[in-house]
Amino acid sequence: MNYIVNTSFMVSPRIHDRWLESLYKYYIPRLDTEKFGNITLFRVLAEHVEDHFTYSLQVEISDMTGYQRIVRELFPEYTETAQKLFGEDLMYFTSLLKKIDL
C-alpha cells in the first residue's frame, strides 16, 4: 500500500462511548467492505490533560482512486450521520499520507 487516509477525531467525553460504538459498528465495517487495506484505530495520547478524546483512524489504500472513493463517497455518508448524532461534540478532519520507503 502506498497511501494512508488518516482521519483525526476530537470527541467530547459526553458522547465518547456512543461515538466509539458507532465507529466500530457502522463506519469501520463500511470501510472494511470496500477492501482497501489495513484499517487501524489509534488513541492519541497527550502529556497534558485534555477536555476531549483524540483518535486517529488510518486506512491503507494503494492508489488515488481509493482516496477519491473515501473522500467523495464514504466520508460524506459518515459526515451526514455523525452530524445528526453528535453535532458539535465531534470534530474531525482527513489528510492523505504517502508512504516513503526508507
Characterize this entry briefly.
The protein has 102 residues and is of the alpha+beta class. It contains 2 helices and 4 strands.
Topology record:
Elements: E1 3-11, H1 16-33, E2 39-44, E3 53-61, H2 64-86, E4 90-98
Antiparallel strand pairs: 1-3, 1-4, 2-3
Structure description:
With 102 residues, the protein is of the alpha+beta class. It contains two helices and four strands. The chain has helices at residues 16-33, 64-86; strands at 3-11, 39-44, 53-61, 90-98. It has a four-stranded antiparallel beta sheet with strand order 2-3-1-4, covered by helices on one side. Helix 1 (16-33) packs antiparallel against helix 2. The protein is globular, with a radius of gyration of 14 Å.
Key descriptive features of the protein:
alpha+beta, four-stranded antiparallel beta sheet, 102 residues, single chain
Strand order of the largest sheet: 2-3-1-4
Strand content: 25-35%
| Oligomerization state | single chain
The residue-averaged pLDDT reads 92
How far apart are the termini? Answer: 15 Å
Number of strands: 4
Task: Outline the low-pLDDT stretches.
Answer: none
Q: What is the count of DSSP helices, taking H or I runs of 4+ residues?
A: 2
**Protein structure class:** alpha+beta
Shape: globular
What is the string of SSEs from the N terminus onward?
A: EHEEHE
Main sheet attributes: strand count, strand direction, barrel closure: 4 strands, antiparallel
Q: What is the alpha-carbon Rg in Å?
A: 14 Å
What is the helical fraction, as a range of percent?
Answer: 40-55%
